[in-house]
Write a structure and sequence with these properties.
single chain; about 180 residues; alpha/beta; Double Stranded RNA Binding Domain; 3 helices; about 25% helix; about 40% strand
């Protein structure tokens, strides 16, 4: 009985853990009530490009997810919009260092030797920034960020799902509540 309970608790904790960490920020003096239409802000072509993240597949996934989320919130795309949207993607290398005490020897309460096993692994974290710029002032008024560990073995469907989840979680906080 206790084993079933513990298994249930662990499953619930794993289900609650999202692979994406989301944060948002906004200009507290900005008036979001007039925003009805949006457009995409063109990225400057002279920026340094990283082929791991600057590609048509990622661009299509982000555009599709943002368009779907904004449309579901009642915003529509227009040639002369109230606000413009753009995104940025960054990769950052991280280290995961774990240490484990290791005891060698035999006997009750007797330890022959004690040492520490250290394991180091390198991984990448990807960050998706989503910016909203007021078309009238050309000022950044809202930013969402979503961060997740990169798994190069994800399928195309898993990547699409992760991007859609990240965009959904960011844009559920847009426009911000006063």
């Amino acid at each position: 009985m206790m084993a079933r309970f513990l298994a249930l608790v662990v499953l619930l904790m794993l289900a609650a853990c999202s692979p994406v960490t989301v944060r948002t920020d906004h200009d507290t003096s900005a008036d979001f009530s007039h925003l009805r239409t949006y457009g995409w802000l063109q990225k400057p072509s002279d920026l340094p490009r990283d082929p791991r993240i600057d590609n048509d597949l990622l661009d299509s996934r982000v555009h599709s997810a943002v368009n779907d989320e904004l449309n579901s919130k009642g915003f529509s795309e227009a040639p002369n919009p109230d606000f413009r949207v753009t995104y940025h993607v960054m990769l950052q290398s991280k280290l995961d260092v774990q240490s484990f005490p290791v005891a060698y020897g035999y006997g009750l309460g007797r330890v022959g030797a004690m040492s520490t096993d250290v394991r180091v692994s390198e991984y990448e974290v990807g960050t998706l920034l989503l910016d909203v710029v007021d078309s009238g002032t050309n000022e950044l008024v809202w930013r969402g960020s979503a961060q997740a560990r990169i798994d190069p073995n994800r399928t195309a469907q898993e990547r699409t799902k992760l991007i859609r989840e990240a965009v959904h979680d960011m844009l559920k906080r847009f426009p911000p509540k006063s």
